[in-house]
């Protein structure tokens, strides 16, 4: 994948959450698009992301003195010898719980996790247990893939920034266009047909409509999963939600129609890496020599 072609707005940084990771713990989330790393240091949890490449993770590990290593993600098998391989949705759930707990927002510990990456997975989380509830191919991969069919020169960060500037009402047919006052419980500001105004609007407007298409449909799928999980609380994590305010707003607005509350964890792209590190530390899995 060429430079700038990744499918998530993910930056690194330092997470100050004392006690979240034990000294020497390292989590690696080797995704289809990006590899995210969470490493416990004396100053806090160092977070770093790079494009997934065959030799990338070995270089990271070679320079690290981690005592417990957890590996997760779609490409975890390529570096599984480095430490404990943790199932991706389990790692995401544990990391999400820890991030919520670190901000005093865990509450009763029950919620529907929407793990938004290249695609999207769902899980019912209850205390320290979780049940995988399937997913959808809609995610950062489909957004970026469709968008680059239209404008291949833009980076992912530019796609999201331009979507935020656009007005989807110039490319979508709205409920208000058909029913000015809405119909039933469906308000006039919701979408009747995505991107149906094929000859209208700017590129920014198209990108706004495309991002909203993802948000509204992910939210509707989440609503069905939340009903199955018997919860009204949805928590977003994963790289597609990271630094993507218009997507989160779209999901939140549509989910509210189904009586759901939506919240996002801090540093959502790193939930999987953090969860893998936590599980590795609990099981005492040491780094490979």
**SSE order in H/E notation?**
EEEEHEEHEEEHHEHEHEHEH
Query: What percent of residues adopt helix (DSSP H or I)?
Result: 25-40%
Major sheet: arrangement of strands: 1-4-3-2-5-6
**Mean pLDDT rating:** 88
- The poorly predicted ranges are 1-5
CATH class of the largest domain: Alpha Beta
What structural category do the secondary elements indicate?
alpha/beta
Oligomer: single chain
Counting H and I runs of at least 4 residues, what is the number of helices? 8
CATH architecture of the largest domain: 2-Layer Sandwich
Topology-level CATH name of the largest domain: Nucleotidyltransferase, domain 5
Would you kindly provide a written description of the structure presented here, covering whatever features stand out?
34% of the residues lie in helices and 24% in strands. With 289 residues, the protein is of the alpha/beta class. The protein has 2 domains: 1-103 and 270-289, Nucleotidyltransferase, domain 5, CATH 3.30.420; 136-264, ATPase, nucleotide binding domain (Nucleotidyltransferase, domain 5).
Structure summarized in a few sentences:
With 289 residues, the protein is α/β, with parallel strands linked by helices. It is built from eight helices and 13 strands. The strands form three sheets. The protein has a six-stranded mixed sheet. Strands 9-8-7-12-13 form a five-stranded mixed sheet, with helices on both faces. The chain has a two-stranded antiparallel ribbon with strand order 10-11.
Layout of helices and strands, plus pairs?
Layout: E1 13-15, E2 25-30, E3 34-41, E4 44-51, H1 56-62, E5 68-72, E6 84-85, H2 88-102, E7 110-116, E8 120-126, E9 129-136, H3 140-150, H4 156-165, E10 173-174, H5 175-178, E11 191-193, H6 203-229, E12 233-237, H7 245-256, E13 261-264, H8 271-283
Parallel strand pairs: 2-5, 5-6, 7-12, 12-13
Antiparallel strand pairs: 1-4, 2-3, 3-4, 7-8, 8-9, 10-11
Helix pairs in contact: 2-8, 4-6, 6-7
